Amino acid sequence: MRRTLFVVALLVLVASLWAADVPEITELKEMYLDTALVTDGAASCIIAVPDEVGYGPLATKLAGAIKDAYGAAPPIMIAGQVTEEAMQATNVIALGVFANNPVVEKLYARSLVIYDWSWPKGEAAYVIRTVHNPWLTGKNVVCIGSVTPEGCAAGIDRFIEILGESEGGSVGPLIEITGAGNPPSEESVAATLKSI
User: Fold this and answer.
1) How many other C-beta atoms are found inside a 10 Å radius of the C-beta of residue 7?
2) Using an 8 Å Cβ cutoff, are 56 and 49 in contact?
3) Which CA distances in Å does 82 have to 48, 78, 125, 150?
4) Is 37's pLDDT higher than 90?
5) Which H/E stretch holds residue 189?
6) Which of 16, 20, 81, 172 has its CA 20 to 30 A from that of 160?
7) At 90, phi and psi to the nearest 5?
8) What is the pLDDT of residues 47-106, one digit of tens each?
9) What is d(CA 190, CA 110) in angstroms, rounded to the nearest whole number?
């Protein structure tokens, strides 16, 4: 019992000391809410695709849709070959999850995206989200993530619809998540919250 109390007290002390060293945020980073995909008739992004079966044709479809919508197709690169300099110099559309796309892995490690092999669940589940200025260079990342190529295909189909709704070669801030099955009802959520 004493040992348990000692460990708990030690953890509380360490946590309070750690929290005391957190610097105050005095200035927010610039957000760059619009993500340019095509500027003045030239691609202003790249598509970073996992080096796995099924993703190449999806990237080709997406590049063609961007060309149809805005007049230029972005180059497609294997995600493992996208350098730090390239990520910082241009906007990126990243397909996949942290485990198969190093661009997404860098965002995941910084808790800027939180999808992996366990979420979102479902064959056709996906996440589309923009990550604004993650490298502090004014360039954004559009993530189209899923645990399956089928889910990524569904995300790309939805993103192509978004392209049709956006003007000027850019997309605005995005966070869209879809999963398998129906979402819980409000009553179910309320009952769960009461039980906690």
Assistant:
1) 10
2) yes
3) 7, 7, 26, 24
4) yes
5) helix 186-195
6) 81
7) -145, 160
8) 999 999 899 999 999 999 999 999 999 999 999 999 999 999 999 999 999 889 999 999
9) 32
Q: pTM for the full model?
A: 0.79
Start-to-end CA distance of the chain, whole Å, equals: 27
- Cβ atoms of 174 and 91 within 8 Å: the answer is no
Residue 130's nearest CA partner among 176, 174, 70, 78 is: 174
Q: Which tokens in the block code for residue 195?
A: 């039980």
Q: Give the model confidence (pLDDT) of 107-158 as tens digits.
A: 999 999 987 767 777 778 899 999 999 999 999 999 999 888 888 999 999 9
Q: How far is CA 85 from CA 32, 88, 89, 111, 135, in A?
A: 19, 5, 6, 21, 10
How many residues does this entry show for the chain?
Answer: 196
Q: Where are the alpha helices (DSSP H) in 99-183?
A: 102-109, 149-165
